[in-house]
Design the sequence.
């Protein structure tokens, strides 16, 4: 799990390069240390941790997708211009998406604060692209 | 999803995230970079995870690391 700018950490940001490095470590070690099938395309493990910043990722959308190819993205967006909703949950696991959608605790506050939306990966990926591609 | 014995690494767990993990009996482990402990240090990405510490944790705890079931 990687928390990107959370309040308990003082809102400190996490670099895209760090996200990618964490992903590489978890996926490569999972293959050797943690038994279990690898659900994502192995070729995506070979991306070097180049220190790529947000702009570089913006130019390489496919690569940006890989940053979140770990499978789950939990995005809290209660107070920003990007999405004034409770946030969204993103997963590339349809079964888990259904479970998240059916959890009332994730959606019952929608009238007041916006809902946590159980989403499959693809619609939420569009939201991410829109955020990354916004003019600075 | 977590169970007793599971280990859940994070750069810094949000307080409610930690509470929910520990409520299940799992162990939430914070792995911020060492510089994060210096309140006077100014860094562009002070929230980064300590990747080497993560690697050590995974090697030490092995199967106890929590994994999403895919």
Sequence:
């Amino acid at each position: 799990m990687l928390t990107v700018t959370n309040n308990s950490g003082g809102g400190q940001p996490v670099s895209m390069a760090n996200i990618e490095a964490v992903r590489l470590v978890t996926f490569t070690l999972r293959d050797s240390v943690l038994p279990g099938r690898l659900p994502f395309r192995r070729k995506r493990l070979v991306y070097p941790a180049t220190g790529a910043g947000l702009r570089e990722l913006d130019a390489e959308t496919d690569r940006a997708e890989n940053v979140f190819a770990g499978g789950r993205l939990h995005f809290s967006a209660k107070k920003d211009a990007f999405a004034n909703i409770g946030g969204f949950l993103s997963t590339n696991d349809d079964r888990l998406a259904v479970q998240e959608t059916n959890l009332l605790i994730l959606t019952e506050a929608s009238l007041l604060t916006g809902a946590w939306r159980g989403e499959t990966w693809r619609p939420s990926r569009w939201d991410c692209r829109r955020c990354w591609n916004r003019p600075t | 999803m977590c169970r007793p014995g599971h280990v859940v690494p994070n750069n810094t767990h949000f307080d409610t995230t930690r509470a929910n993990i520990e409520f299940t009996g799992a162990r939430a482990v914070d792995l911020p970079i060492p510089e994060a402990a210096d309140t006077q240090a100014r860094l562009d990405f002070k929230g980064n995870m300590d990747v080497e510490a993560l690697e050590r944790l995974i090697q030490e705890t092995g199967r106890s690391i929590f994994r999403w079931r895919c």
In short: The longest helix of chain B spans residues 51-61.
